[in-house]
Amino acid sequence: MFSGQQHPVLDPEILEAIVEAIPEWLGVLLVPTTYIGSVFVIVPLIILAYWWAPDRFGVWIPAFFAYYGLMASIKSLNSATRPDIDPAVGPELFPAIFSTWYGHATAISSTSFPSGNAMVPAVIIGLMIVDLRISTLARRALVGGFAIAFVGFTRLGLGVHYPIDVVGGIALGLAVLGVVLLCRRHFEDGVTAVFALAIALAFASVWLRSGGTGVPTWEGIQGSNRVLALGGAVGGLLAWQWGERSTWQFTTPRLGTVASFAGVLAVVGVTYAIHLSITHPLVSMLWAGVVFAGVIVIPHVVPTRDDVLVPLGVTSA
Q1: How far apart are CA 57 and CA 208, in angstroms?
Q2: Are 21 and 156 in contact (CB under 8 A)?
Q3: Is the pLDDT reported for residue 260 higher than 80?
Q4: What range(s) does the Phosphatidic acid phosphatase type 2/haloperoxidase domain occupy (predicted)?
């Protein structure tokens, strides 16, 4: 789609003008803020939200995998290079302990289009706007829209994306959000539908990474996060289906609940140990599947406040 050293849509001078206009105080703020669109923030956020209210936020996890699959697939279809522009601020303004975080935010080598950090907030913050019960929908949309736009702006200020990458990322994220909301509205089990979409997109990203002309080769996907996305989506779907069909009745009271929770942690731990010792993509896929199957199951095997209080004759109200 794109190739060569020059971005096909925008001239580097436009981005240079944006970066040079950013004052130092704002440049310092851009570095931590850009992590709102990072997996280091998004993944813990969607997991904790799901654990807090599995029924209300169940679609957030497969929505993330759908985003990642689409983003990675599009990156495989183009070779648009990153801007050769210094960030608005240098690492000397940050404590040494944050040097790794600064480097991760500003030194990126993947394909430029689209901006994943701009795309994923459009999906997840978009879901927050729809699903949260804080204030009014209009106010949530106003705050959420500003957050999405500002995270996108951080990618420009740090000199790691062209404007078209950010605009395209936000547009693609909103498209994913729209499909997710349609699935939830028109399918009886919207979570399963979004998981199926996520698996299809994650598989496409793996296939394209491997060449996109035949059966994916292990060498072509060695060390790729796409493998983790595919494994996580498959594991999450299997756990969700198992839970729905059994109405989440996994355990008996007390000891059964404790044993189930311990069992989930043990299986995750064992597969992680195998993942560290065997770097084959299939093992990585298996580990990711087990981890996200555990993520899906855990809120249904850990006692809730009502599980503890009601037998004692105490209501949580």
Answers
A1: 30
A2: no
A3: no
A4: 57-181
Q: Largest Cα–Cα distance in the chain?
A: 70
Domain boundary among 180, 209, 238: 209
- Look up the pTM and report it: 0.82
Q: How many domains does the chain have?
A: 2
| Whole-angstrom distance, CA of residue 180 vs CA of residue 194 | 6
Measured distance CA(273)–CA(268) in Å, rounded: 9
Q: 286 or 191: which carries more pLDDT confidence?
A: 191
Please tell me the distance from the alpha carbon of residue 60 to that of residue 209, in angstroms, as a whole number: 25
- From 189, 209, 229, the end of a domain falls on 209
pLDDT band of 88, cuts 50, 70, 90: confident
Are 88 and 19 in contact by the 8 Å Cβ rule? The answer is yes
Please state, as a whole number, how many other Cβ atoms lie within 10 Å of the Cβ of residue 61.
Answer: 26
**Residues 160, 55 share a domain:** yes
